[in-house]
Amino acid sequence: MSPHKAPDSSRRSDRSRRAIHDAALALVGEVGYARTTIEGIAARAGVGKQTIYRWWPSKAAVLMEAFLDMGARQAAVADTTGGGGEHGIPDTGDLAADLKLVLRATVDELNDPAIEAPTRALTAEAVIDPALGARFVENLLEPQLQLYVTRLRSAQEAGEVRADVDPRTALELLIAPLTHRWLLRTLPLTHDYADSVVDHALRGLSVRP
C-alpha cells in the first residue's frame, strides 16, 4: 500500500491563481471593467472572494497580474512554436520594414477584444491610481519601449538614423499616434495607418544626403 501523499498546496494555489486570472480577463471582456467585481471574479473562478482579497488589494491589481500572466503565456507559446525567442523588434537591416512589422502586430493586438478591454481598463486606472500607474509603466510599458530604444540605437550604429537623435524621444513618434487613435477611437486603427506612421517618422529621423 503506497503511503498517503499530502496535497500539493503550491500546485493548488497556482491553479486557483490561473482560474482567477482567466475569470478577470473574461469578465472585463464580457461586461466591461466598471461592472466587473471581486465577487464576480470569485464566482467565475470557483473560489471564495476572501481568497482573492488575500492575494490582491483590488480588482485592478487582479487584472494587472492577469494581463502580465497572459503575456507570459503567449510568449511561452511563441517560444515553443518558433514564434521568436527574444520577442524583440527584428533587425533585418531595413529599419522601416522592421518597424512596420512590429507596429502592424501592435495594431492587431489593440484590435483584439481579448486584449483591448483589459488594456483600456488598466490604462484608465493607471491615470487615477499612482501606485498602479507606476507598476503599469514598469511591468507593461517600459519593457516594450526598451525594445524600440535598442532597435533605434542599432539603426544609428548602422548609419540609418542620425547620431543626434534621442531614441527615447524618437520612439514616441511611433507609439504615440497609434495610442492616441486607439484611446480616442477617432478613426480606425489599421495596418495602412501603422505604415504611414513609420514613413512619416523616419523622414525626420533618417540621415539626409
Automatic annotation (TrEMBL):
Ranges of the DNA-binding region feature: 37-56
Keyword list, A-Z: DNA-binding, Transcription, Transcription regulation
Pfam families: TetR_C_11, TetR_N
Annotated HTH tetR-type domain residues: 14-74
Keyword Transcription regulation part of the UniProt annotation: yes
Keyword Protease: no
Highest taxon listed in the record's lineage: Bacteria
Listed InterPro entries: Homeodomain-like_sf (IPR009057), HTH-type_TetR-like_transc_reg (IPR050109), HTH_TetR (IPR001647), Tet_transcr_reg_TetR-rel_C_sf (IPR036271), TetR_C (IPR011075)
Protein name: TetR/AcrR family transcriptional regulator
